[in-house]
Structure formats: C-alpha cells, structure tokens
Amino acid sequence: MTQEPATEPSAEQGGPPHPPLPLRIVLADDERMVRTALRAILGAEPDLEVVGEASTGAEAVPLIRSLRPDVVLMDVRMPEIDGIRATEQVLATMPEPPRIIVVTTFENDAYVYDALRAGASGFLLKRSGADELVQAVRLVARSDSLLFPAAVRRLAARHAGQRAAEDTARLLRARLSDRERAVLRLMTAGLTNAEIADRLGVGPATVKTHVAGVLAKLGVRDRTQAVITAYECGFVRPTAAPPLGP
C-alpha cells in the first residue's frame, strides 16, 4: 500500500520554510578515480547531490535524459561518444536541458571551444581545486558565467578568428541597443552582473534585464553562448582584450 507523505505546514500557514532542494548533478567521465573524487567533493556540500555517473558519452546521454539533473560535469574526451557530441545530443533532445560544464586537462584544448560552441555553459580544468569545482557548479546552476576571459580569447583567436566578418559584426550591432552592446562587451570580459552594474552605474536588476535582452536578441541560451557569438561575429576581437566600457 502506498503511504501518502505527511503534509507539513507551509510558510503561509505559519510553519518553517522548506530548505531549498540540493542541486542534482550527473558526472560523466571515463576515469573511475576522477568520478570518485568529484563525488566526494560535491557530496560533502549540503546543497549539492550527485545523482548519477556515466563512463562514456553513450551512457551519459540517456542517463541525463532520465534523471534530468540541474548540472552535468562532462569530460570532453570520452570513448564511444565524446563530450562534444554528448552535449549536442542532450541540448537537442531535452526541452529543459541541464547546464553542462565540460571538464578538460588543458585550457587551450580545441575540444573546449567546440564544446562551448555546441552549447556547454563553461569549462573547468581537471587541476581545479575543490572550492573552484563547487563554485563552478553553483555558478552555472544560477546561469552565471563560467568563463576564463583570457583563455576564451586565446581559443577564439585560434578557432574563430577566421570566421569574423565585418558584415556579421554590423548585423550584430544593429540588433542590440547601445546599452546592450556595452553589457555584452563587459560580459566578454568575464564580469558578473554586480560588476557590470558598478561599471555602468546602474542597478543589478537593470543589468539582468539587459543581459536577458542580449540573450533573446542573439537567440542564445546563456551568457557563455553570447560571448562565443560576440567573438565569432567579430563584435570583439579575440586577439585583444575586450573593451571595458560602453
């Protein structure tokens, strides 16, 4: 017989508010020791929960579809299906896909840029410390940027520099307002909403509205994709530090 769960008083009824549910995480890496280490680090945090593991991209895709996690840590190089193809398949087949962080050994890996173009929300180096790992998961879960601006500039210079065209850049500029262009430039520099607000002298809520406008007009899912688009359209030059003002 199925037992109905006990009903606790809600905050409106005078009861204590329910604590937020932990972020659900799936690990996809072909090295068991790496998965074990990641699980130990993340599992020690009360707001994080590892709900599944996969050793190949072929295993990861159906597992992610079934478990519907909030965040996936995806090794960029795996047998059968690599992290790039797995990312593409997840994003193409799930109406509300998770945020995906690709994990790599080297920040200048060509696979990293391809994964970001495929829709990953950011990347993390395998040598990153425990605090960086935990912070990365929390950042992407709330749709904040997880980019290393200098590394992305190097990647863009190597892999997207030849694609930049002035006509594409003009099209991009025409679609964004002056304020939205300023916000996008600061996003490419890796600034958070709070830092952008301070730089432009506006409130965080205003910046959030502008960021949402940039994403909508560019037709991208998150800040990372907006930054990649900015480089590929030639809106910012990958060989130089992006401007830090309007």
TrEMBL record:
Domain HTH luxR-type: 169-234
CDD domains given in the database record: LuxR_C_like (cd06170), REC_NarL-like (cd17535)
Keyword Transmembrane helix: no
Alphabetical list of PROSITE patterns matching this protein: HTH_LUXR_2, RESPONSE_REGULATORY
Pfam families associated with the record: GerE, Response_reg
InterPro entries for the chain: CheY-like_superfamily, NreC/VraR/RcsB-like_REC, Sig_transdc_resp-reg_C-effctor, Sig_transdc_resp-reg_receiver, Tscrpt_reg_LuxR_C, WalR-like
Region entry Disordered, spans: 1-21
Name the UniProt record assigns to this protein: Response regulator transcription factor
Modified residue annotations for 4-aspartylphosphate: 75
Phylogenetic classification of the source organism: Bacteria, Bacillati, Actinomycetota, Actinomycetes, Kitasatosporales
Species this chain originates from: Streptomyces siderophoricus
SUPFAM superfamilies: C-terminal effector domain of the bipartite response regulators (SSF46894), CheY-like (SSF52172)
SMART domains in the cross-refs: HTH_LUXR, REC
Sequence ranges assigned to domain Response regulatory in this UniProt record: 24-141
